[in-house]
Each structure stands twice: as structure tokens, then as C-alpha cells.
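Hi R.,

As promised, here are both runs. First protein below:
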Amino acid sequence: MLETVRWKRKHMCEIAATAQRHVEFPGLSPEQRQTLALAGSLAKSVASGARVCSHDNVQMAVSLLCSACLPGFPGAPAPRCLGRRDWRTPCHLVARGILDECVE
């Protein structure tokens, strides 16, 4: 159980970093920018322990990241994701930019 919580927190750290990296992407719609900011904020608070590392919080952060990513990023290749909302497997956006160091 403790290992699962640690893994979820690490994944939330990865999502927070991904959202932070992409929130200032040029040409994003205001909705995408706001959704990325919400995903980053929620994921960061779960990773830091400020919010409970529950399945619902983790699922919400993943869903927010997916909904911001699915429309695509201007000038970038179309996302290869069909709307995954599975916190167990990082999406392509997260997988290609995972941080080596992630503070829990």
C-alpha cells in the first residue's frame, strides 16, 4: 500500500512538472492554459502531501492533463493519445519529458 502511494505521488510530481512546462506554450487557448494550471496545481499538492493521495485526486489530475492536451499544441505534432485517463501509465506528453529528479 505504501509503495502504491509513493508511486502515485511520483507520478503526480511528473504531471505537475509537465503541466508547468506546457502552460506557457505559445498559442494555447485560454481554456487549455487554465486546465493545465489546474492539473499542475492539483498534482503538485498531491505530490507534496498537501492533499490526500487518493485515487480520485490522482484521477482528476490525469483527466485535467488529458483534456488540456487532446486539442493539441499549436505547431506541435498531434497527440498520439486517444484520451487515456489511466493514472497507472503516463501519457506520451508526460513520458517524453519525465524529470530525473522528483521531490516527493
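And here is the second one, sequence first, then its C-alpha cells:
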Amino acid sequence: MATQPPGSPPIPPYRLATHQLGRVLLRTPELVVLLPCMVWIKAIGWSPVALTFGALSGLWFLARYLLLWRARQHFQHGRYHDATARACTARRMNPYAADAYWLLGISALQRNRPALAVKYLQQACRLDADNPKLYAALAAAHVLAEEPDAAIRCAQYARYLQSNMFEATMVMSDCATSDQQIEHYLRAAIPYARRLSDRAVIYCALADHLLKTGRRTEAVSYLAQAIRWAPACPPATRGSLHYQLGVLLWQCGETEMAYEQFRASLKVDPQGLYAAKAWRAAALGLTNLSETQAREQPTATGKVIELAPEQEKVSHSA
């Protein structure tokens, strides 16, 4: 695999996205109309034309902002199709909005559409080239799309932009090729995880790795911490976390606690990452599941299932 030069973005940015002013204009193109109207009113006085265009551009911006805010709310509560619908409308109102593409991308991940998520998040990275969170999300999408080389390049660039990027460090652990590398990246991510929800995800992944390497006692201690912090996670993360905790507890022989985690996963996020598997595990346990299904590696985003067919295309008009 060819190494990426330090500081070189893996996704070529749009021309306007290479400087701060350009990114502001891409994010809020209404300023092109609103600011001249304000200058006109200030210099010449009140004008019906300036007032009308200024009011319309302001209302357009407000409507788009409310759509994006509503899409985030839907996503945080596990309503991924509603989040996608709101973000699509916001994207039509401004096809250069990185936030809209980001929401479309992470919602696609939750609906088992990693290839679609990669396309959306690549658009977001082109439009906001210096945002490490966008590159970390793109790296996670590449992991789920089984593109480890691209995932590593994006994660490395995210860490170049922000060295303590928790999500990028988790992706590096997913792509590591040895047990020592995996454990190194997981432990290195712990100090960067300031939120309890992030620490719960790391501890779950670390417990899984420790179980695979035969260190059950140490793994159980991390599982206990993850269980305690799980309620701090939003539904989009908590549903998959409960399922992974159930799988790991089952492997430790704690079947009753595992059943509790499977039921919690289904209750918290009935349309999310592991809804179908959580339902099956809560009813039947993991006895009849294959070893591949029972030992899935927990990640920052998790693997996902498709709940409904959709026809979506990424707009390349930007």
C-alpha cells in the first residue's frame, strides 16, 4: 500500500473549499444575497427590493437550518429514514452543504448502505476539506465497505488534522493487522474519549479483543465499565453497543446478563444497527448462530442491516 504524504488530503477538495471564506460561502450561500441587501439598506436606506430579497434569503437559510437540525434529532433518536428525508431536502436547498452530505452519509451507514455512505461522505469531505470528523466518518464507511486501504488513508488524514481524534483511532484499530497493533490503538484511544458514550464503545471493543487473546478476567472488568456507561450513549450508538455487550457476555458464560443486553438493544434502537440480530438473540440466544455471527468486532460505527429498499443517488452537481 502506497503511503500518503503527511498533510495531503485523500479527497481532492472543491476549489472554494481550499480556504476559509470559500467554505463559509459553500456552507451559507444565502450570504451572497443577504450581505449586499444589508449593505444597500445601510448605505441608501430602506428599499422594497432590498428588503424583499434580504427577507427571502434569510427565510431560506432559516428553513434549511431547521431541516438540518430536525435531521440530526431524527438521527439521534434512531429514525434514520426520517433523518435521510430531511437531509435530502436540505441538500436540494443547498447542494454545497457539507452538513447535509454528512447526515446522509451517517444515516446510510445505519441502514447498511456503506457504498452509498462513502459517496455521500466523500462529497462532504470535498466541501469541507479541513474537518477531521468528516474524514473519520468516511474512514469508518470505508471499513464497512471493506476498503481498508482507503480507510487507513482517511483515518491518517483525520489524525493529521486533529491528533486526538477518537473516531479515527478506532478505525486504525479496525484496520490493524496484528494483536499488538489492535490493542495499542484501542488503548491509545481511551485518553481521547472524553464522553462516556465514546469510552463505552472503546471498552466494548477492547473487551472483545482481550477475549480473543484469552484474557477473560481483564475483559470482564472492561465489560462492567461499558455496561455502566451504556445509558449515556445516544440510540444510534447504544443499540449496537447493547448487542455487542450481549455477545461478549454470552462468550463469558453470563447468559442471563446477555439476554438483558439483547432486549435492551431491541428496545433502545428497534430500527437500527443490530435490530434483527438482537431480536433473534433475545428469543433464541447465540447457541445456533455461527461463530462468525457471534464474534463480530465492535467498532465505532458497527455493522448494519438493511431495513427497507431505497433508490438514492448522490448528487454530483456540486
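A quick note on the second one: Residues 288-318 have pLDDT under 50 and may be disordered. Let me know what you think.

Best,
J.
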